[in-house]
Specification:
743 residues; alpha+beta; Methylamine Dehydrogenase, Chain H; MetI-like fold; five-stranded antiparallel beta sheet; 16 helices; 31 strands
Length: 743
């Protein structure tokens, strides 16, 4: 038996040389590593940039929703203040005492800088209009003496100085027994002065004095008038007079009243049930909105509006929950819709009318507080007690913003019902802020949908035909031509749409409708006609004949529709489409409307949709199509059941990227639409998008102001919507890819 052969360990094989004898050099390895680092750094930079943009937008937006901060400040010794008035920059404070005397103090030093002596008769009651720094004293002779303080500003030695000066008092005779007066109010604006009083029997007396100056002769003429209104059924405890001295508001028990003051007397009143008993009244800036405090500590804001009726009525537009004890006094800001409320238990609350925000609640820190005032800029408040006045520093930079004001319906002054309105600027500083983003978001979606209505069918169907049917030799010319469309600047498309397309489309709109309706059948007819030609003839025709035939049929059909537009307008729309539209639907035809914008935006979106969709369709393996055709399927069956499902992830991505392109479009919308922030589904009206609104408003928005930050909030919404849309598209695309790839 032979021994088993001894197994020797295999000899170590020499290292295998690279094919063709190539050896990777060290410089090439370093170059590859450097390229990998550059690519990685570029990707991280893009991610970091997106995160930085998001952080910046959030940091500019967050201050909008921060509450107010109120901190206790200086205390000025002052006894018996019945009404307060504040210099616009809160440098000086005016206070009226129970005797009718007015004293002015410099808050920095606490020194008294002006004193207006009391009236010559005994003062029965004192009232104030803090928004005008004016005071009124009712004497026991039934005469109201209105005293206003002017804050005169001078610049001496480069520094700003404020000098208070008392106007000449205006006397307004009520001609009633002062003991019968339950409440009174007065205002004086120089040429017009008005005083009103509520009597114990519920009646109202109004006295007016008008001073007219003849500009030629310099002569002054003074006229007086006195009006009365019958009893309201219950005595009024509170009165408020608007700055224009045209509307008088009153409250007694749970009832609110409003009279219009004219040269012929008092008209009205408009009445409303306030719910809980009224304990305080104050008119907000502008004199249209009435802040009302109730015995249960709740607050509400009312104004007069024509709510679908011929006459006006008092409407409760805003309400706030109870802050504790009964509301004792209210102090409005002189510039915004903020107001301060003082409760009987010493609690304070800072509120904003339009946004319905409770900005701050806390304690006044003054025992037995009786009255209060808020500076014109809303940055300082003053609470008066029996022996002192405490100053409160108020920081409330953006009180007019809340989620309900930005996205919900708001009942604005003089509006018949709650509405979504964007109006960043008004005719006066007293205009109510209207910063609803809902019309802008609606306009963004409206413009996007109209653009995709034209872009998706043309882009996707064009990509299907180009990649699956068109001769490859012709593809090399068509694809670059379509993609060049993407290089056209948006401003050029907007210019052409606004100045050329809009007026021409208005003149032939019935023909345009006919062209849209007849376009698809004509395209099918052209394709069927070419397919019906004998094969021996089509082989002799030059390359691209089917495309030229389809284009000729479509262009000819469109030209015929436009030529027949006047006849179609006479036959179906009574000869005037705009008049027919107004009579039939109540809508108006705006030449720069959603259809014009949709056509122009589609021209910008089609190249993106076409390029991505065509690339996705072309990347479907030819083996799938060949196998389908080999099994007997027709070309269109293969496209519909094999190619389209396999390319569906790319097609979906094309549509979503086109959606993102349309959402962010700015210049076309800015130039091709009326740029009006409306919520209207009609395709014949314009709209305003978030991006266009940013472009219009940002140059005029003061940095750090409310409008400035709201525009950044608009940018944040666009960023989030685009990011979420792309993220959702990527998830759906990945699922479709896994489903149809079998992995």
């Amino acid at each position: 038996m032979q021994p088993a052969p001894r197994l020797e360990p295999p000899a170590e094989s020499p290292p295998r040389a690279p094919p063709n004898g190539a050896v990777t050099s060290r410089p090439r390895l370093w170059a590859d590593r450097a390229a990998a680092l550059v690519v990685r750094a570029g990707g991280l930079t893009v991610v970091a940039s997106l995160v930085a943009i998001l952080v910046f937008l959030v940091s500019e937006t967050l201050p909008l929703f921060r509450g107010a901060r109120v901190t206790a400040g200086r205390v000025t010794p002052l006894a018996g203040a019945q009404a307060l008035g504040v210099e616009p920059r809160a440098l000086e404070l005016a206070a009226a005492g129970a005797d009718g005397a007015v004293r002015v103090f410099a808050l920095e030093s606490g020194a008294q800088v002006l004193e207006v002596p009391p009236p010559p008769v005994r003062t029965v009651a004192v009232a104030g209009a803090p928004d005008e720094s004016s005071f009124a004293a009712l004497g026991d002779d039934g005469v109201v003496r209105a005293q206003a303080i002017d804050w005169r500003v001078s610049y001496a030695g480069g520094s700003r100085a404020v000098t208070p000066k008392a106007r000449t008092p205006v006397e307004l005779a009520l001609e009633v027994d002062a003991a019968r007066v339950r409440a009174f109010v007065a205002r004086s604006s120089g040429s017009h002065s008005t005083a009103a009083a509520a009597l114990a029997d519920g009646s109202v007396v109004v006295t007016r004095k008008d001073l007219e100056l003849n500009e030629f002769s310099g002569e002054r003429s003074e006229t007086s008038a006195r009006f009365t209104a019958p009893g309201t059924g219950q005595p009024l405890e509170y009165l408020a007079l608007d700055p224009a001295q045209r509307v008088l508001f009153g409250a007694g028990g749970t009832r609110l009243f409003a009279w219009e003051i004219s040269a012929n007397g008092l008209r009205g009143p408009d009445t409303a049930d306030a719910g809980a008993p009224v304990t305080a009244l104050a008119l907000l800036v502008g004199g249209r909105s009435l802040a009302v405090g109730h015995s249960d500590g709740s607050l509400s804001v009312w104004f007069r509006a024509r709510a679908g009726r011929a006459h006006s009525e008092l409407i409760r537009a805003h309400r706030y929950d109870s802050q504790g004890g009964a509301i004792r006094a209210l102090a409005p800001s002189g510039r915004g819709r903020s107001f301060l409320a003082l409760g009987a238990d010493g609690a304070l609350g800072l509120y904003h009318s339009t946004s319905e925000r409770v900005l701050w609640r806390g304690e006044s820190g003054v025992t037995g507080a009786t009255t209060l005032a808020l500076s014109a800029r809303g940055d300082a408040a003053f609470v008066a007690g029996p022996s002192e006045v405490r100053e409160l520093a108020v920081a409330s930079p953006h009180p007019e913003v809340s989620l309900s004001a930005l996205f919900g319906r708001v009942w604005y002054e003089d509006y018949p019902e709650p509405a979504w309105v964007w109006q960043s600027t008004g005719g006066t500083e007293e205009a109510e802020p209207k910063l609803s983003l809902t019309p802008l978001a609606f306009g963004t979606l409206k413009g996007t949908l109209y653009a995709l209505f034209f872009a998706i069918p043309l882009g996707v169907l064009g990509a299907i035909y180009t990649s699956q049917v068109m001769d490859p030799r012709l593809q090399r010319s068509v694809k670059p031509a379509v993609e060049i469309m993407a290089s056209l600047p948006s401003v050029v498309l907007g210019f052409l749409a606004g100045l050329w397309l809009a007026p021409r489309l208005e003149s032939v709109f019935p023909g345009f409708l006919a062209a849209v309706v007849t376009g698809p059948p004509l395209a099918l007819f052209a394709g069927a006609a070419y397919a019906a030609l004998p094969a021996r003839l089509t082989r002799r025709l030059p390359l691209g004949t089917e495309v030229a035939l389809s284009a000729a049929v479509l262009l000819g059909g469109a030209a015929l529709c436009f030529q027949l537009s006047p006849a179609l307008e006479r036959a179906f729309f009574g000869g005037d489409f705009s008049a027919w539209l107004r009579a039939a639907t109540g809508a108006t035809y705006d030449p720069r409307n959603a259809i014009v914008a949709g056509v122009a935006m589609a021209f910008a979106v089609i190249p993106i949709v076409f390029a991505i969709a065509e690339e996705s369709l072309s990347n479907v393996p030819r083996s799938l199509s060949a196998a389908s055709l080999a099994l007997g399927a027709t070309r269109w069956q293969t496209i519909a059941r094999v190619v389209l499902p396999a390319a569906s992830p790319g097609l979906f991505a094309a549509i979503m990227i086109g959606f993102g392109r349309a959402v962010g479009e700015t210049m076309i919308v800015l130039m091709a639409t009326g740029n009006t922030p409306l919520i209207d589904l009609s395709p014949f009206n314009g709209f305003r998008t978030l991006s266009a609104n940013i472009a219009v408003e940002i140059p005029e928005a003061p940095q750090g102001a409310t409008l400035y930050r709201v525009l950044f909030l608009s940018a944040l919404l666009l960023f989030v919507v685009t990011f979420a849309t792309n993220g959702l598209a990527d998830v759906v695309r990945e699922r479709l890819r896994r489903r149809y790839s079998g992995t």
